Amino acid sequence: MASRALLRSATPAVATARRTACHAATSHGLHALASSRAGAVTAHKCLSLRNKALSHSISCYKQKIDQQTRATFTTDTHNRLDMADSGDLEQSASEVLIVAMITNPPETPGQVLDRIAEAHAINCSQYISAIIDVITKPSSPSLPLDQKGSKRIFKPHMMTLDVCERLLEAICNTEVNGIALRVDPHAVQDLYYISKARGWELDPEVLQSAAIYLANSSFYAVTEAIKHVNSASRQQSDGDSIWRFHLNSQEICDISLDSLIDQARVAISSGSISALPDIHASGQLDAAADIAHALSSRSFAPKSAYYLFMIRAMCVCEHKEYAEMMFSMAKQADRRHLGTEYALMMSMYYRTGDTAAAEALFNEFVEIWKAHWAQIKDAFVMPDAASRQAEKWRLVHEENVDKPLVFDTAELWRIRSRASGPFYRYALELVRNGRVDQAIKILSEAKYVYFVSLTSMQIGAIIHALLAAGRTDEAFDTYMEFQKTTNASGGPGIRAQDVVFGKIPFGHVTGDILRELGATGSWDRVWSIMGNGADLSDGVYYMDSVKALLDRALDTGNQIHAVRCAELLNRIAALHSTALDSLSNEWLECTFVRAIEIFPDAAEGYSHLVLKLLDALVQKNAASQGYLYLQWNAHVIRSFFSALRQLPDAAQAQKLRSSFYTAAELVEAALVEPASQVLRDEAKAVFDLLPSSLLAVPNTYNSVSQSGGWEENNIDVPFATNDSRFWEYTVRAFSSRRDHRLESCRDNAHSLLQTIKLMFVSGARIDQRFLALANEVLFNCGYPVVDTETGDLLPRKRQIEMKGRHTADQLWIETAQETIAADSPGRSAGDCSRSGELNVRLQQKIKLYAECRKASKIPPLRQLSSLVGDAMRQSKRAVWEPIVRDHMPEYLQRLVSNENEKPRESTQYATTIWSQAIVAYAGLGDIEQAMAYFRCIVDARGYPISQATAMLLLSLSSANVLVPVLPRGWDGSAQRIFGMEPAYPPQPDSPGDTILVPKTKKERRAIVAQIGLAMLYATFKNKIWPTTHFYNILLTVLGKAQMISELRQVFEVISPTSARKMPARLRVNPAFAPSPILWAMAIREAAKGNEPALSEYWFKEYRMSAMPIFREEASAYSRFAYRDQPKYARLFILGRPYYLVAQLERPLLEDGSSPEPWYDLAQVEKQLEMDRLRALDKLPLSYLDAFKMMTIYTLVDEHRNMDSAETLAEEVVALYRDKVVPKYSRPRGATDLASCWRMMVSGYIGLLKYYRQQIESDPGKVNKCKARLVYWYKQWKRERQRSGVNTGIPGHSSMLLSDEEVRLAESISASMR
Questions:
Q1: What is the rounded CA–CA span in Å between residue 1189 and residue 1200?
Q2: Which of 171, 256, 299, 1004 has its CA 20 to 30 A from that of 941?
């Protein structure tokens, strides 16, 4: 009672939320809402509301159920609460609500409705069953069954029309796709009779669902019994019984109840099952038929599935009267053109012995189908829905066809397959009566005359019937015939009568026919089936049949077919992860042993049958497919070695073991975990047979002698072989093991060292890369290492040296991993995500590089360059610096000493990596290190790449670094290249100096500019094409040095006019297609260098010759830049030159103050004209360009235009929101927006001044100006606060409405200036 009181007090606290969630978010309502795309968000919100309400209900209930109250609960109640603590949300809700209802049962119909709504919301069958138990009277075991087959008696005061209706709706809602019933169907039966007895008129939709629920319960009772008897009888049945096959759902409907009872009795006698199945529905079909009568008297149109479910249940349960009644109703509902109901009725008539009625129905349906097919046979057929709509539009608008009939292939298949049932059932009965030839004729006419399409289930049932009748040839012909198709994909001009569909039966059918064909020795037909459309995706269902075929091939001594069966098993296993469970160790071992015993005198080596079977079963590329395939290989190879151990002839087993190692593909597939464990176990089994003195190996460095070498060089190995493959694979098997446990790791290293010793003693040699991998394992476990060339034990001194190098590499790897794993504070979520992706890629590259180091290999140039470049871009100095500083000399020395390597390749190797070092050190400001690598490249008769020279020149242009002496960088006579005179780097006053000491800033700029020109000439001389980045920096340096003539000479070299005169092989290079940024840079430097004519000339050249090239998608420039951006986003960069010619600001006065006015009116008007040209060329504005124009329209009195400024403000906002536009073309954030809105505020203040100076001003314009001023003032202040910059504005933040506040805004504007 205490628990009931507590829960009763908890109920009001959650009643509102619970009722709202459960009524508003029922499964039916949410499903309907989410079916439309627009309602998906609303459905998600409703689900969230429901989940929150359920969570709140759980919380409130649990808080009220304290420890003292729990002591009064039963064991079942405690178990439910424990499940609620560990389950998901709906499971927790159901368990807690059930406990609440058990301890506090509903006492009124309203409370029952609330509980039903909760159960309906979470769709919990257990909760519904608990509600039914609560509102019924306790039943007595002695109480006899009533005429309706139920002992349930509902409490009268609990039952109302709403309770009955809602409870029926909740029960029927628990059915999952018409497949499984989760609530006792007797409850539905009882609820219906209660409503009928009390005269309640239930909703037709609810009655329809109840009838379907009752009908399905009867149908499932029979089908489950058939499945159970079939499963138990397949092992006991003889070869002529249909029960030995895997029955599909189509065949289940064709099993008579008498046949089911007879077969069940046979299964009981054999002990397969214990009792007869319960196939009688205890009056449930009577209730369903009663409901059907009630619905027929109402003006209600049931859904299409209603008749199908009702007729199916009544036919399967062989209730002839009910079935005929429902069939008559279906005809009246105009469902005569569908053959499913006809097939069900025919099946019932055949099973009950009324053959004449079945044949009459078949003839009736044929006439109906012929009439229906005549209406659609000339319809056009297209491949899919989209092409169907397009064809329909074409026929209407181009061919002037009124209401054309067009199907897609899926729709046509559905129409034909619905009509296939009667043909299938008629043919099946003919087969069972022995009239096979007539049945085959009917099937052929069905496909090619009546154009119906049998389903895979129907074809499978026909084949099973043919096999059961002993007509294997006809079964094979039927299997192959029904796979043939004609125009099955549709297409233009193809009509429905031109299309013939085909279907492949399911895997069980394929397995059954394969088994029968193999038993008769029809191997050609077996491989015809497997080579002409057998669906291997269903292969797991006929693996047993393929195994039987393999056994049959071994029994008949046929090697070819045995190997092909093994290959088929392999192909099936590659598609199914569950295939491993289908091949037991016993079957595999028995198969291998039988293969050896059947062919004991076969040729040795790989040609032996057992090796062929093994090769056919092993997955060759298992390492790239997943762990399950690796387990498959281990499973197969372990069974092979187990079979060898079972052979009495040890010599034969040793030959086969050696043959296994000869098959390279087999061992390669076995050298991946867990298959390599099998090889290790086999090697250890062999080692156990050897004397202990031969297996003695040192386990520390101190145990190795000063001279090194193995001691037992003259001992004979009992099983010795100098076959290098055996030792190579054994070494690799031990080297590939990855076990972090110290004891297992040392045990593996000990076995590995023993293997290497036995290999050396037997005189075999293997590739040094495998010995290098073995040394890595020995290093990690503290064991001595061996010579990678010979396999001999190294002397103690060499052991220590190699240990030091290995330690250094390990330290580099650990440092690199720690550097990458370090978190970077202050990054946004997006930056962290991008950084994480880059770190993963960098870690993969480090792993590959570490493997090269362990194997003592020179990494490929592309791999090493990619690693160093990524590490530099991510500022991982601890990663790239040791490679450049410590590892590169070693690689270059090995490249130079290698006779197979050309000097040019070593130079390219050094140039590429050291150029990246120049980029990194120049970016860090370490000019000394950058110049050191620069000189190294020049000394190697190479020259740095253009990116390296660009970064070095950019670093030298800084005022706080020393200027080094640059080497010349070329040999031979100096000549003009591309119209450019030879440019020599500046030299020091003293020949031994390495640093230039400029006296003034101007002199320094001239020296850096001369260095840049020398770099440009050297790149031309060494045939290294400069990049746009290098030209950009060079033009900036020349502009600062006021070397306009040299700037002009450089830019003319790469201008389009000069590029057209160059050879075609040079024009395709992007260096000779300067980017718009480079054009803008040249135009700006010319303007700043007091060369307005030159800047205007270049601007005209840009508009006339360069910009049309950039607009074209196939131009040379667009191939290399902005490939991931849409076309409109690429146009922003083209407008930069339009806003770099005019210099709006006038120079400052001598005292540093601004002149009045601050702008040059001529330049302003020139900029307006440039903006007009930009608009004429249809180029978009970037943020910087828009800000410049906004400055003119707001601050220049002569050209103030606030309407244009407002338009620009809208464009700035659009740019800010457009995330596709490049970052340099968008506002960077609140700071940039605040700068724009500041201009708007200043512009409206200036406009107010102008209105005030007029004698008569329009009050409407003044008020509008004030309103816009207030708006932009608020926007400006908000963005300034967001930017985190001190606004410097007084604390007065009220709206500016009065003249005094407008004057305050004017003063604020003045302070901003």
A1: 11
A2: 1004
Q: Which of 1197, 1199, 1282, 1198 is nearest to 1237 (CA)?
A: 1282
pLDDT value, residue 357 = 92
Mean of pLDDT values over 681-692: 78
3-state helix, strand, coil in the chain (%, to 5): 65, 0, 30
Structure tokens belonging to residue 496: 């429905």
Residue 218: count other Cβ atoms within 10 Å of its Cβ.
26
> Which of 819, 886, 811 is CA-nearest to residue 850?
811
DSSP for 955-983, please give it: HHTSTTS-EEPPP----S----BTTB---
H helix intervals, 713-860:
724-735, 742-761, 768-780, 796-821, 829-854
Q: Which residue matches tokens 């390219």?
A: 908
Question: CA 951, CA 266: separation in Å to the nearest integer?
Answer: 90
CA distances from 602 to 596, 598, 773 (A): 9, 9, 38
Burial tier of 650 (Cβ tally within 10 Å: 0-12, 13-18, 19+): exposed
- The answer to whether the beta carbons of residues 819 and 878 sit under 8 Å apart is yes
Answer whether 678's CB lies under 8 Å from 758's CB. no
Backbone angles phi, psi at 1018, to 5 degrees: -65, -35
CB atoms within 10 A of CB 1168: 16
Q: Are strands 995-996 and 406-408 parallel, antiparallel or unpaired?
A: unpaired
| Terminal Cα distance for the chain, rounded | 80
CA dist., res. 131 & res. 1013, Å (int): 91
Q: Which of 395-399, 409-413, 904-908, 1119-1123 has the lowest mean pLDDT?
A: 1119-1123
Burial 540-567 (b: 16+ CB within 10 A, else e): bbbbebbbbbbbbbbeeeebebbbbbbb
Number of H helices, E strands in the chain: 60, 4
pTM across the whole model: 0.54
For residue 40, the tally of other CB atoms under 10 A from its CB is 12
Two tokens at 1205? Answer: 């400024």
What is the three-class DSSP state of 288?
helix
Question: How far from the centroid of its chain's Cα atoms is residue 22's Cα?
Answer: 36
- Mark 1068-1097 as b/e (b = at least 16 C-beta within 10 Å): eebbbbbbbbbbbbbbbbbbebebeebbee
Nearest to 192 by CA among 144, 238, 159: 159
CB atoms < 10 A from the CB of 838, how many? 14
Paired strand residues for 963: 996
Q: Kindly state the tokens that stand for 1153.
A: 């103050």
CA gap 1082, 1079 in Å, rounded: 5
Q: Which of 1053, 1038, 1013, 1160 has its CA nearest to residue 1088?
A: 1038
Number of C-beta neighbours around residue 1300 at 10 A: 8
How many whole angstroms separate alpha carbon 618 and alpha carbon 533? 24
Q: Is the dihedral of CA 199, 200, 203, 208 positive or negative?
A: negative
How many other CB atoms sit within 10 Å of the CB of residue 514? 24
Structure tokens given for 350: 């055949």
Tell whether the model's pLDDT for residue 533 goes beyond 80: no
Instruction: Tell me the Ramachandran region of residue 964: left when phi exceeds 0, alpha when psi lies from -120 to 50, beta otherwise.
Output: beta
* Residue with the two structure tokens 């629920």: 213
Give 143 or 563, the one with higher predicted confidence: 563
3 state SS for 423-463: HHHHHHHHHHCCCHHHHHHHHHHHHHCCCCCCCHHHHHHHH
pLDDT score for 452: 92
Contact 1035, 1081 (CB under 8 A): yes
1143 within 8 A of 1101, measured Cβ to Cβ: no
- Residues 959 and 925: their CA atoms lie apart, in Å, by 11
What is residue 201's three-state secondary structure? Answer: coil
Q: What is the largest CA-CA distance in the chain?
A: 124
Q: Which two tokens stand for residue 948?
A: 């390296």
> What is the DSSP secondary-structure string of 200-233?
----HHHHHHHHHHHHHHHHHHHHHHHHHHHHHH
